[in-house]
Specification:
Blueprint: H1 2-39, E1 51-60, E2 64-76, E3 86-97, E4 100-108, E5 114-123, E6 128-137, E7 140-150, E8 158-163, H2 171-194
Antiparallel strand pairs: 1-2, 2-3, 3-4, 4-5, 5-6, 6-7, 7-8
Length: 197
């Protein structure tokens, strides 16, 4: 009986790993497709640009000048309408606090579910810059990849962690990014519902 139970657990673990790897490959393909779509929106490429751009400029206490640029890329729902509703595909957000620059990306699947988060974030305490990648499927985190380098360095990022769980040090960041993704979806719907169709 023990052998059967161990074999069953081993089989389930291998099946889970294969499923997660397949999901990650699908996410990477979709990410590459969205990046290609965005690159084609350049005037020389001939595709008309189609995205929402929100620019925020303000003076924040303690850090001074703050600028944030959010771009939301979308596509049309596949329905038989002259002006079909839009669905959010990708969000990029670039902003600063004092001299520190932050950059984030959020990728959504065709059903509007968050499937990928990328963040480039400087850490003022540790004086390092981190690249964070979170892959999700069915609302669950399936892979975390953390790379870092000294802040302000041109050196390549070095891998700190790669695995199925989120290290405790990065869990608050992950949860914050998931909240930001939900806010961006809400913002997109508000803008999309307010524009001429």
């Amino acid at each position: 009986m023990k052998r059967i139970t161990i074999a069953l657990f081993a089989f389930l673990a291998m099946a889970q790993t294969a499923w997660a790897q397949s999901a990650i490959e699908d996410i990477r393909k979709q990410y590459a497709g969205v990046k290609e779509m965005i690159a084609r929106m350049e005037p020389e490429q001939g595709w008309p640009p189609e995205y929402y751009h929100l620019k925020i400029v303000q003076n924040l206490p303690g850090t001074g000048y703050h600028e944030e640029n959010v771009r939301m890329y979308f596509t049309d729902e596949e329905v038989d309408e002259i002006y079909p509703p839009h669905k959010l595909l990708f969000v990029s957000s670039k902003y600063n606090f004092a001299a520190r620059e932050f950059y984030e990306e959020y990728l959504f699947d065709n059903d509007g579910h968050l499937i990928f988060i990328y963040a480039l974030t400087p850490d003022a305490v540790d004086e390092k810059e981190s690249e964070l990648r979170f892959y999700l499927a069915d609302g669950n985190l399936i892979k975390t990849l953390v790379k870092s380098r000294a802040w302000g360095s041109d050196a390549p990022f070095k891998e700190e962690y790669s695995g199925t769980f989120c290290p405790p040090a990065y869990k608050p960041s992950y949860q914050t990014y998931v909240q930001y993704a939900a806010k961006f979806k809400h913002l997109f719907k508000s803008i999309d519902n307010s524009t001429y169709k």
